[in-house]
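Supplementary Methods S3. Complex input for the zinc ion-bound model.
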Amino acid sequence: MNENEAMDLLRRFVGMHTENGNEKIVADEIKSIFDAAGIDSKVLTLDEDPKRANLVAEVGHGEPVLGITGHMDTVSAQQDGWERDPFSLVEEGDMLYGRGVTDMKAGLAAMVAAMVNLKKHEGQMHGTVRFLATAGEEVGMPGATALQAQGYMKGVEALLVGEPSGYNIVYATKGELNLNIAMKGKAAHSSTPAAGINAVEHLLEFLGTISQRIKGAAEGKSNPDLGETVFNIDVIRGGQQVNAIPESASAEINMRIIPEFDNKAILAILDDEVARFNASHKATVSYTVGMDIVPAIGPKDARLLNIVKSVGERHLKAQGKAAEIPVFGVSGGTDGSVLLLDSPKDTAYVMFGPGNDTMHCVNESLPKSMFLDFLGIYDEIIDEYMGIGK
Ligand SMILES: [Zn+2]
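Predicted complex, serialized as structure tokens:
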């Protein structure tokens, strides 16, 4: 696939509405490209919605198995401030604009192009490249969850995630835990508070308790790759009007997780505090878990990481730029957090894909030159990993 064909593919991807769903149209498009190239692929519909699907494809045979993955959904484009149609790829100078152009339809298109290009050299490959295109990365990761459960990560010794890192390598991502806390009290007129149970006041007390206990437990725990636990109370709701005792109140908490203080340990503290609170108060507290993903850390000396670094630095040098590519851990999870759940500890995890810091923003953008550069980068990474030309 040449640069013009890859640009056309990116244009078609951006034109497809896959805001938190509807990914099957993208999967079908990829399948038709792979069919034409002679690549075996499968569109796997998600149980809960026939418009949602993953796609799996392979080129080559035997070991090693390199996994390459990207998601087909985007976040919503229903925000004020878009200066261009978010669903048509707009080119202005070196910039491309559109929903998902950075996160991550450019990375996805570059991986599709790499598979098509690889097929032509299949006879020279030593191993297999398995491409996993997922649904629903942005909310709940149902696509990655299904692929992992269906065994598509079996045998994968290294996973390349095409999320937007730009010219940076990410090999570790924190987990994430979202909690919804609900407090139930009893309504009454504010002149007779004793007749009611104030849900807002009880919620504030409970939030204070768990904030103190979780932050206390997190203290002194740190991960060399990921740093420390993050705990934020981000949303609080409750009450109707100033002269009424509120019957209910709720809060949302977002946490970023390290292995030293994991999701289970936090939920155990929460269960303990919920039981303690309900036994000693008239109000009743309960909680539900939203996003619940564990941290993922790949080895820093993995063969894939070294290849990605050397190929990336060669490309930076060719642009006349400083050639050192930084390698670090970040807060945000990826599909890798789910895909790697049962993988051996030494499985490589590398996030490296075209993109800038406009992901999830209005007027999401990407330099066209970076997209085109990553076409070559992915080809070279895969060729080197598969021993092509050796
Ligand atoms: Zn993404």
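The first strand starts at residue 40 and ends at 46. The mean pLDDT is 96.
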